[in-house]
Design goal:
Elements lengths: L6 H9 L5 H6 L8 E6 L13 E7 L10 H10 L10 E7 L2 E3 L7 E3 L2 H16 L6 E6 L10 H13 L3 E5 L18 E4 L2 H7 L5 H17 L19
Helix pairs in contact: 3-7, 4-5, 6-7
């Protein structure tokens, strides 16, 4: 390390979820009693950041003994991580699921099939029906978008409509190129939120890249979950998503 480089300070700065979230934690607003569902890549289930918050881990369309990948642990840590999380006392329900099939040659021959994501959403809804009041899942986060030409489009779109009707906030990360909708917004819990707009990224301090913007914007989302109920309806122009990258 260069002389005077304080790597421990950098590590601590990196753990801070930002947006004043830790000030909410000091007020006892930590996500306790809130259920968060994530559909993403295979997870390291015993990671010390979120192992204590894991209420369920299941796999759909994942090969036996598949290794964990980087994206799932990242979003899980941002959501409920012990030292990095926006909602460190929320309950995590995690469905590991690839949004398609790998052909010969692996990732180079990946084909989208959103039938699997639809299965994951339906599974989360089934679980939620069994949970007691006060411990319900209130958010489903999916870091992928879909278009009408994708296999399974009708299934996943129908599943999202059922989730929204059940009162869940649905969050997906995609630009308009990967989405069936040209614009979406934030203002009610049942609306979908699409992450990846360059306009939204600038307002949240993210970069224009859809992938790079995911983390600060998920931070925005989970901080909204932590706020007291009367404050949850964000201004209509807070995250307008009429501009795609």
């Amino acid at each position: 390390m260069p002389p005077g480089f304080d790597w421990q300070k950098i590590m601590e700065l990196g753990k801070n979820p930002g947006l004043g979230t830790r000030s909410l934690h000091t007020q006892g607003i930590t996500g306790q009693g809130v259920g968060l569902a994530i559909i993403d890549q295979p997870l390291i289930v015993d990671h010390p950041e979120y192992a204590d918050r894991m209420q369920l881990y299941e796999e759909i369309n994942i090969a036996p003994h598949a290794a964990s990948e980087m994206h799932g642990p990242a979003v899980a840590s941002i959501a409920v991580g012990k030292t990095t999380g926006v909602a460190p006392e929320a309950d995590l329900y995690y469905i590991a699921c690839y949004a398609g099939d790998f052909g010969p040659g692996g990732p180079a021959n990946f084909t989208y099939n959103f039938h699997y994501i639809a299965q994951g959403i339906q599974r989360i809804l089934d679980i939620n029906r069994q949970l007691p009041e006060g411990r319900k899942i209130r958010v489903i986060s999916i870091s992928v978008g879909w278009s009408p030409e994708n296999k399974g489009y009708d299934e996943v779109t129908a599943a999202v409509k059922v989730a929204k009707a059940a009162g869940l906030l649905w969050c997906r990360a995609a630009s308009k190129r990967l989405s069936a909708s040209s614009s979406m917004g934030w203002g009610a819990r049942r609306w979908p939120i699409q992450i990846g707009s360059s306009r939204m990224n600038r307002r949240c301090g993210g970069r224009k890249s859809s992938t790079q913007a995911i983390y600060p914007l998920i931070d925005c989302l989970f901080r909204w979950i932590l706020e007291p109920q009367p404050a949850r309806a964000a201004p209509a122009n807070m995250f307008s998503i009429a501009e795609a990258i």
